[in-house]
UniProtKB/TrEMBL annotation, chains A, B, C:
One Pfam entry name: YjbQ
Protein name, UniProt field: Secondary thiamine-phosphate synthase enzyme
SUPFAM superfamilies documented for this protein: YjbQ-like
Top-rank taxon, per record: Bacteria
Sequence intervals crossing the membrane: none
InterPro entries membership: UPF0047_YjbQ-like (IPR001602), YjbQ-like_sf (IPR035917)
Length: 140, 140, 140
């Protein structure tokens, strides 16, 4: 088969500093638009204070993620981080390393090749501003 | 060259809640079956309470991983996590974020293009049930 | 289009045990040499005590990463880790899991398809020896 490629950006602006958004339906729409039936799909944050990751769509778990990430990389006091001279988002850069920048997803028979509970999330750690997620698909 | 694709699932059921399994020989077998000589190989957990990662095949280190992950995201008390209303595996969802969902491996000359010590592991954090790992290879 | 592939290794030897090196210009050079205009680029450490990751090129933040990783996975006392029988680098294996082994980058119009602030780093956690990073590009 001969290689095809498709690219699209998703746009987000959260009301809160931190939030988790299920972007699975958006990524699936991009895949179907692409017409690609078999290959690999990269989904990555185009920013360095947010994440794309795969986990469970369950509100209690998202609350646990929030509490846990605040324990591992607390937002405050801002003065604890050297990055926070003109910024206040050092914690967001750290949180994003734990949750990851990107996921790579197999495409099979024109669908996201997922286990039962896999859902794709945009994880925002420095929100209330315009952010972008890149979807890039290569295959046939 | 023209693009080829190959897909196979690996199946696991651990005896313990948490375990690390070296799956490098299994992934290598899938690669050789595929006949693909050059490209990219995605290996990902199809579950959200387990990981695929690359590190050292050394028993002391695996014991260190277990101790460390329990310190960063303790299993108990179960009641510390809001996800644990009907579940008891919130810690497994957190541990999986640290260890990662997937690896992408270069394929060169029909082999996994690895450094000397790189080995692929399935990291189980909520075991004693049937689990699947996806191997998807694209290339030529 | 028909698939092309390109492979190159980057070589590093840091003066310190831990260091962060911006490798974006090196990866961009490899991409331009490849002639590939559209596809995916994998950049991974070939070692298990170092990372490749994408974040901000800001010295204060790198200092925060150092402090934070030492808190989450301290180097000393060496005796706290079972891996450290003949080694002293167990902490480096743990730090690498938080920061990640690899990144996958979209290639569009012959360039790294990046957001404004995305920069690629080699993160060394057990330095003062020869290390390698693999760049593998597939596409058209």
């Amino acid at each position: 088969m001969s290689m095809k490629s498709y690219r699209q950006e998703l746009h987000f602006r959260t009301d809160k500093r931190r939030d988790f958004i299920n972007i699975t339906p958006l990524v699936r729409n991009v895949l179907h638009e692409s017409g690609i039936k078999d290959g690999l799909c990269l989904v990555n944050s185009m920013h360095i204070t947010s994440s794309v990751f795969i986990n469970d769509d369950e509100k209690g778990l998202h609350s646990d993620f929030e509490t846990w990430l605040e324990k591992l990389a607390p937002e405050k006091p801002y003065s604890q981080y050297r990055h926070n001279g003109f910024e206040d988002n050092a914690d967001a850069h750290l949180k994003r390393q734990i949750m990851g920048r990107e996921v790579v997803i197999a495409i099979t028979n024109g669908e996201l090749d997922f286990g039962t509970w896999e859902q794709i999330f945009y994880g925002e750690f420095d929100g209330m501003r315009d952010k972008r997620v890149l979807v890039k698909i290569i295959g046939e």
